[in-house]
Structure prediction request, 462 residues.
Amino acid sequence: MVRKYIHAIIIIVLLSGVSSCKMGKDYVRSEHLSADSCLQFATDSTTYADMPWWEVYTDTLLIDLINTALKNNKDINIATERIHEYMALRRMTVSKLFPTLGANIEYGGVSNKNSEGVRVSKNEFEAKATIAWEVDIWGKLRRQKEAATADLIGIIENKHTVEMFLIAQVAEQYFEIVALNSKLNIVNQTIDARKEASRIALLRFKGGLTSEIAYRQAQVELAETQVILPAVEQDIVFRNNALSFLLGATSAPMITSSKLEANSLPDYIPAGLPSTLINRRPDIRESEQALIAANANVGIAKAEFFPSLSLTGSLGFESPDLSNFFRTPIWGHAANLLSPVFQYGKNKGRFEAAKAVREQKVLAYQKSVLNGFREVSDGVTRFQKSKVIRKLNEELEISARNYLKLAKLQYINGVVAYIDVLDAQRKLFEAEIDLNTSVRNEYLSLVSLYKALGGGWSLANL
Prediction:
């Protein structure tokens, strides 16, 4: 009996040594574009993305909104549950590497009369502990573990990606609403000013100082401005609804601020090195994990060409009499070698398909890296140019305001016609709207670049 145990242990140890090989090649990260080929990354050794989002977005209301979204957003909650799902799937995959233990207990009894007419009862008892183990000779099970681990890490990176995009979306909606509030104030102030201008034009017309056309022109300008008002109010409602959706709520806190100055804008944003971006952006990391899983699946498919070995054993006791139950031990063992012989190209097809999927994931990973470089380059350019546009619009707004002052003064003195005042009012209104838009775009460019650099989630989560 003891000798059988020793033999079994020796066999297991030997097979464990044999199973040290794995089919397929281990994953090695390929080379990507060099720093010299990415002009936007040429000199920066640090990246703005290392700043936590609450230091980038310093408005206290915006910070509260982002915290609420990270807690209640449905996409975040779904991503969290997917992590739980893939943790369980990986646990199932890893369990295949270890023996399976089981127990079987049987009891039976019969009662018959013997030749002398005496009833005789016979009871049978049997209890066995069973063990089954697939020996991972070709590394198939280890490749499965490798693929499951990569899938799990990829799902974790997916949650980081969702967090990164969610923070950017909340910030975008917030800045849009604040800018719309500012636009609403501009429109209302312009409406009030044009109502007053229309009233004065009517008085001057009735007093015989001007013709009716000046009054009608003032009314046209007033009506054109009033038409803008409901569209702005509608946009505010739509943006608030979008923000509520991101917060995972039916309604969001009313945002009444019309000033974006609560969030400071840096003069310069370091982009970092290309390798920093590849390691930093969770969507690129997620794509790489998909490639790692696909590479492992090639090894799994290759292992299917070779035979698989399963060991089974049982140890227990059986006895026709319960009193002798532990005196009659039984032992059994078996090995099953399953080898593919002829499957009409099934294994070859599986192997070729796995290689094709791996190549797809290689291309997808390369695409995600290139897209990351493109987004950073676009983001840097957008951020730089938005500052220039905002400064030019500030100068334009100042010029338009001075132009209106001069036009009003000359109109009072009879130098110019009222149409010139209306033209100056129109130019100032357009300049104020353009300035408000350029300020909004400057903040949105900050959001876009911060997201492109991989900012918005914490590296401490790794």
Remarks:
- Strands lie at 100-113, 119-135, 308-319, 329-338.
